[in-house]
Amino acid sequence: MNAPAAVPAANFLRNQIESDLDAQRFAGKQWAGGPADAARLQSEGQPDPARIRTRFPPEPNGYLHIGHAKSICLNFGLARDYGGVCHLRFDDTNPEKEDQEYVDAIIDMVRWLGFDWQANGTEHLYFASDYFGFMYECAEALIEAGHAYVDEQSADEMRAMRGTLTERGKDSPWRNRPAAESLALLREMRDGKHPNGSMALRARIDMGSPNINLRDPVLYRIRHAEHHRTGSAWSIYPMYTFAHPIEDALEGITHSICTLEFEDQRPFYDWLLARLAELGKLAKPLPHQYEFARMNLSYIVTSKRKLLQLVREERVDGWDDPRMPTLVGLRRRGYTPEAIRLLCERSGVSKSDSRLDYSLLEQALRDDLDPKAERRVAVLDPIKLVITNYPEGQSEACTAPRNPHDADAGVREFPFSRELWIERDDFREEAPKKYFRLFPGNTVRLKYAYVVRCTGFVKDDAGNVTEVHAEYLPDTKSGTPGADSVKVKGNITWVSAAHAVSAEIRLYDRLFADAHPDSGDKDFLDHLNPDSIQTVQGWLEPGIQAKPGMTWQFERLGYFTADLKLSTVDKPVINRAVTLRDSWTK
Ligand code: ATP
Ligand code: MG
Question: Which residues are CB-neighbours of 464 under 8 A, at least 6 positions away?
């Protein structure tokens, strides 16, 4: 399976896995060809062909973003590196917000990142909702063993009784009701006989625990809601904290890797699995949870709620707007899977929260594209340059390397002629100090063509320069013996006006102007960058085929990609993925 990684650095997760493997902690672990409870493993289990099992467990309630990429790279990467298998599991236990649209988009993007979930002839693609039946059996078994009860308090009452960090909780009046009564009520809950919120199933652990998560957490709640896969089969749904350990155990996960905010849940994770193993529902070895710090980046927000708000309020043009930190957005912007994997590798694995500078993401893209992107020329803010001593109607070929780092890539050809487009900024009526490009009397090289001397310019009635004039020095063509006969300090890019391809070019910048748009009590919407998109009509090197997804370095300008949705060869729409240099970090 799977994409090559940069050389992985040691981290606490790798150390953990290595010591687990050395100690043969999973020796004797069974696998029954798919998720299995203890009974099925007993009858059908074979030695597990996977040395470790990890999982990426998205909830299908939104599009994946750059933070998810970290979890994907980590889980799939560890499985790949240690002879294991990584499962893609949809944690679809929350019916209201989930949808098949998100399932499809997530599958698509995990594949795009270069990972897959096939191993040993099996597709390891799973849905938590497929385990609802087994989870329910676990709930009944816990009640029968005295480990759970149905509580008829309202959510507010339960909260009031839960206590605080310094004060123990109080027992619910229903805590010691007979198991048979709880069982009957749970069945009624399941059968849809009670309204939302009227009762809930709770674990019976310890209302005096210093860990609030162990003060009889809720396991099941009533939700009369349609589920995108199970329809109206269920009117109760398991809580994430109950469902997740069971999902891991059924799938034989060895290392259940999650983000730091779940650290306080680990005692419950272990408690629940230990009880279910004692009750004969789950087989050992049981999974173990490990926590690492989220990957946070400056200048973005990744909360699904906030991303959804940007989309709903049309602050951006959909989930795949090229300014969004979603993977669909980054792909459309021109990000490569390799660049994203590189960032995830470089960001390391840590136990303490931090925020990476956004420029690291941009640098990863430059580092990925520099050796492989073909070079082309484009002019984004065009002004006409007329070579007054070059014959009208004549043209000649110039050649340039497709990729200066790769001699095998060969050369490209494009015509030189009398009228060219150059960047407006490459001409000044009066040159400031250290300005070496075109100004009256100065000579510069037109890259891959001739040295020219600026002879004048034309202005319109409003005083704007509309045309620059120059004469070329015929012996100075690049690649000919005379090329070095004249020394110049400036080297500018150009395209032949009669041959260039017109294109709509979208110059993107960061979506937020503030490095921490949602920190403290800031409203992230107040910090949108008003200049995050600028659309220009520019000119591209002739011969360019702007098929969706094609990526180039436009010399001197940055990396650009033909828009996946909008670009056609006849009507190119080009996104700037990243500039050549970082202009934000000072
Ligand atoms: P939200 O809280 O905004 O809904 P989430 O993180 O809960 O997002 P999930 O679909 O549950 O979204 O995430 C799937 C997996 O991705 C989880 O294991 C989660 O820990 C991990 N993940 C999400 N964001 C990050 C991040 N920034 N860095 C690393 N892992 C992340
Ligand atoms: Mg989540």
Answer: none
